[in-house]
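can u do me a favor
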């Protein structure tokens, strides 16, 4: 019998509602263990406990920030010394960009049930190898691992959405739609009004020895295959990362919006848009802050933010070749309030922050 280890962050937005059902489901099965960790300092002991159980699959139940924290702990140079199993993701946060890219959408419990069904029937057809982005804020700093990074005006736009719209409690899709509208208005009018996202400044980026300079509306690096509003992303060669750079001009932004609405980013080719691959990306003058997987990073004094690829990470992609029964959730036991103590639950509880509220400053 295969063993599945679920690592859950109870502080993630989605888990505040769905975690009791996941706890009960894990407790009802002998092949699933649930370890809860709500503080970064407790993450390594939790992973050591999971490693001792030698699971066949590690499931991360949390938002993008939780996934980033776990990947950083697993794939850093001083990471745990054990053979890492494939990783599956459950959408336990608010935006869940990474989990969606792995086919995990909707109800987290149903996603977990799909994962269990895949393991029972063999994971081979569902394994996908992806690169990670290794982000360093300066010499001597421990790199952080992630999969989606935004810089320049795009990062400012995301922060504007978080501080001005998320705080109002509106649905995520509505916040993203309003952010897109306000971003387009900012480009068309070039206003500097307080209610609009700030315009970009002149900035430098070095990609594999090639220097780019300009006022960019979008600077983006992603190892995900699909992005909400953009569709499939351009592929990168193994051992390289690709920088997507869009100049701030009305024609270029208009074409980019139309490309995104059609979900054709991978095929996009027009003046003002560049796709530059390289084995290293350095953000220079004008860019001292970036956002990766919802977390904010600032370069150390006198340093630059540097990105490098980390190859060979195995994930389980739930976009199945064998369809999981749509009635699975209905056939499963009805799970209600959590029990105080269950055999399948182990807790390490402090306060791991929700991914959308955490920032890193070096």
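np, heres the sequence
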């Amino acid at each position: 019998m295969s063993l599945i280890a679920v690592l859950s962050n109870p502080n993630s937005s989605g888990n505040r509602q769905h975690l009791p059902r996941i706890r009960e489901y894990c407790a009802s099965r002998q092949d699933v263990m649930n370890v809860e960790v709500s503080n970064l300092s407790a993450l390594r002991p939790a992973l050591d406990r999971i490693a001792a159980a030698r699971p066949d699959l590690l499931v991360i139940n949390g938002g993008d920030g939780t996934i980033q924290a776990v990947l950083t702990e697993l794939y850093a140079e001083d990471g745990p010394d054990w053979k890492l199993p494939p990783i599956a993701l459950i959408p336990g946060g608010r935006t869940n960009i990474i989990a969606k890219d792995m086919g995990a959408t909707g109800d987290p419990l149903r996603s977990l049930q799909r994962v269990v069904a895949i393991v029972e029937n063999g994971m081979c057809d569902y394994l996908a190898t992806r690169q990670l982005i290794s982000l360093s804020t300066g010499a001597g700093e421990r790199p952080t691992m992630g999969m989606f990074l935004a810089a320049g005006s795009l990062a400012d736009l995301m922060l504007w959405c978080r501080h001005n719209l998320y705080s109002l409690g509106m649905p995520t899709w509505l916040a993203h739609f309003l952010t897109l509208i306000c971003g387009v208005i900012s480009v068309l009018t070039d206003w500097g009004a307080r209610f609009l996202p700030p315009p970009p400044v002149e900035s430098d980026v070095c990609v594999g020895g090639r220097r780019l300079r300009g006022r960019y509306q979008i600077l983006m690096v992603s190892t995900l295959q699909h992005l909400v509003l953009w569709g499939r992303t351009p592929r990168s060669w193994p051992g390289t990362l690709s920088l997507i750079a869009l100049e701030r001009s009305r024609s270029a932004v208009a074409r980019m919006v139309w490309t995104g609405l059609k979900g054709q980013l991978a095929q996009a080719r027009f003046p003002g848009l560049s796709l530059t691959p390289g084995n290293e990306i350095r953000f220079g003058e004008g860019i001292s802050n970036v956002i990766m997987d919802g977390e904010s990073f600032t370069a150390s004094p006198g340093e630059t933010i540097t990105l490098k690829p980390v190859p060979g990470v195995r994930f389980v992609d739930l976009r199945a070749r064998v369809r999981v029964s749509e009635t699975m959730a209905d056939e499963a036991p009805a799970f209600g309030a959590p029990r105080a103590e269950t055999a399948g639950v182990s807790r390490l509880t402090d306060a791991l922050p929700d991914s959308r509220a955490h920032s890193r400053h070096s």
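The chain has two domains: 4-130+312-361, 148-292. hope that helps!!
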